[in-house]
Amino acid sequence: MITLQGISKTYRVRGSRISAVHHVDLELQPGDGVLVRGASGSGKSTLLHMLGAMLRPTSGTVTMDGVDPWAGSPRDRAALRRSSIGFVFQAGHLLPWLSLQANVEAAGVSSTRATELLTSVGLAHRVDHRPLDVSGGEQQRAAVARAMAASPSLVLADEPTGTLDSTSAAAVIDLLEQARANGATVVLATHDSAIDLSHWRTLTMDDGRMVEG
Ligand SMILES: Nc1ncnc2c1ncn2[C@@H]1O[C@H](COP(=O)(O)OP(=O)(O)OP(=O)(O)O)[C@@H](O)[C@H]1O
Ligand SMILES: [Mg+2]
Q1: Distance between CA 161 and CA 206 in Å, rounded?
Q2: pLDDT < 70 positions in the chain
Q3: Which end of the chain is more exposed for a tag (fewer CB within 10 A), N or C?
């Protein structure tokens, strides 16, 4: 279980303070699917980065299975992210010198499993290509396959379908649904109104504040 209690994040830029996330309380259980909506600049990415122990809240507490990731060392947090959290961010961050297949294997899975994951997002014919030798949407799908490879207990997806056509977007959503079915908590931030996830819990960010629905 993941809990956020009174989480806020204030950025300081040249003397001014930006309240990006304001006093958010949230409890997430294994298997939960959560959709985070909200206008550009409302705090969605900031919230996801705090959920992923990548960004330290200015105030409030985060606990993951009872543990505060900020009580440990940077090395502990890196280990936690590697073992338990799958990130899908807009810039795919694939390793450019490795093939798509090797990128997914680098997350610690067998060659068979890596091919299976890439096939599930429609990339069976591109496994030997490097990221720069495929399209932006294909890179994005490979990044999703890689994020799922270690079977993370928490999947954070920030606009994972933003650059995709509807068929590819559906493949990505299928993969996220599969992760949920396997017990992962999946949090998806998106503007994409074409995605129908009305059966997921919806949260809306409004100028840093979170409202249910
Ligand atoms: N590193 C940063 N330094 C200063 N301000 C930041 C930083 N990152 C984000 N902000 C500001 O914090 C607020 C929330 O940003 P955030 O990226 O969380 O929004 P978002 O909902 O993800 O927007 P989008 O839909 O455009 O991705 C915005 O006002 C943004 O300008
Ligand atoms: Mg964002």
Answers
A1: 22
A2: 90-92
A3: C
